[in-house]
Amino acid sequence: MIEIERIPVLSDNYVWLVHEPTSGETAVVDPAVAEPVLKAADAKGWKISQIWNTHWHPDHTGGNAEIKAATGAVITGPAAESAKIPTLDRTVAEGDTVRLGGVEGRVIDVPAHTAGHIAIHLPGEQTVFTGDTLFAMGCGRLFEGTAEQMFGNMRKLAALPDNTSVYCAHEYTLSNARYARAAEPDNRDIAARLDLVTTLRERGEATVPTTIGLERATNPFMRADSVEELAARRTAKDNF
Ligand SMILES: [Zn+2]
């Protein structure tokens, strides 16, 4: 059973420390920066042995070099973005396996936010790391891909078991929830979640992780019935 530690950095990024106690291995997912990550690992008594990048954006890879220099961690990231992440040691794509001690992860290609974006699913741990593709009540902006690709990503992720915990890379939930309420004004699950998220954020608490089941009920992008509907919602949210 893995343990996962949330490290809030920059204005709204979450870096995730993933610890597998049997082997003692620890992976960092999407280190925007190094120092708070190294400190958090030290505080837990965990030694970082791997870094997993979901995509090339600097707020997901900026800590790679310094963490590797400090720990010797092996860095794994998307094959299609290797030219943009010069610190990568290993490149992976759809269907490839990543291992953290005895825990096995499966790589899922989820292009659209960036052209080579990946998610990492740990089926035995009911956990998926989705970077900037699936957010709580939202999805990533379409910087390097199409609505059709993002629609396919949402279908792939929606097919994971409902009890799968979703660890995304930003605290965007309140803004997403406000848009979701506007997109689906009759959806009572969305209304209730907007209330909950508002309360949590007023208290300064995190709203991530979420679950696939919760997203299937309240995420207007995962709930879009067609590419056209997702595209219209993405444009509307960009201007919300
Ligand atoms: Zn990004």
Automatic annotation (TrEMBL):
Pathway, per record: Secondary metabolite metabolism; methylglyoxal degradation; (R)-lactate from methylglyoxal: step 2/2
Entry-linked SUPFAM superfamilies: Metallo-hydrolase/oxidoreductase (SSF56281)
GO biological process: methylglyoxal catabolic process to D-lactate via S-lactoyl-glutathione
Enzyme Commission designation: 3.1.2.6
Cofactor(s) this protein requires: Zn(2+)
Binding site residues for Zn(2+) 2: D59, H60, D132, H170
Role of this protein: Thiolesterase that catalyzes the hydrolysis of S-D-lactoyl-glutathione to form glutathione and D-lactic acid.
Designated name of the protein: Hydroxyacylglutathione hydrolase
Organism: Sphingomonas crocodyli
